[in-house]
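Human:
Take a look at this sequence-structure pair and walk me through the tokens.
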Amino acid sequence: MIKLCGFALSNYYNKVKFVLLEHDIPFEESFVMTGQEESLLAHSPLGKVPFIQTGQGDLCESQAIIEYLHARFPEKGIFSADPWEAAKERELITFVDLHLELVARDLYKEAFFGGTVTDATKGRVEKLLTRHIAGFKRLAKFEPFLRGDRFSVADIAGFVSLPLVGMTTQIIYGRDFLLDAGVDWKRYVKAVGERPAAQRVTADRKAYIAATAK
């Protein structure tokens, strides 16, 4: 059985977990924090989560894991059977993961963890996010899902990461860059959140936050 390693606060852990739940792929969870211990690096070369353990070995990076799941369980239809639609789903995931969330991540130290980031970093991130959100808006349909009226794997990436981008910019700049650009991520997340897999991911994340706050 696949073992998913990480913790429920990680959006990329939740991205993989959502896929596993949504497509009814059996798995078990193992609590693992990020770190630089050799015991962790032996499984995840940069000490990041998530990673999975399989009978063939370990695999890290959320998108690589999802591509592996798609190839291993083709009957589950994780990506669309239509080559064009599947490519567009991957395109949207790339925008969410790399052009939005990864850029906003440079601000998390101050937004969520009590640290500070430089004004130069804030200025760079603002310029990049402004341009990247405009590009994302040209691709995403939000009718109500990213590709239109059909839920897809791209919506799993959107569900776990778009709220972080919106909340981070609100905290750091005093305004939500997504909402300002006309991307109503709150309505979108509500629509995706009606799915049982999304509800499970959300409930587990909230339980983790409550437990660590004690």
Remarks:
- Strands lie at 2-6, 27-31, 51-54, 57-60.
- The chain has two domains: 2-76, 83-213.
- Residues 67 and 78 are 9 Å apart (CA to CA).
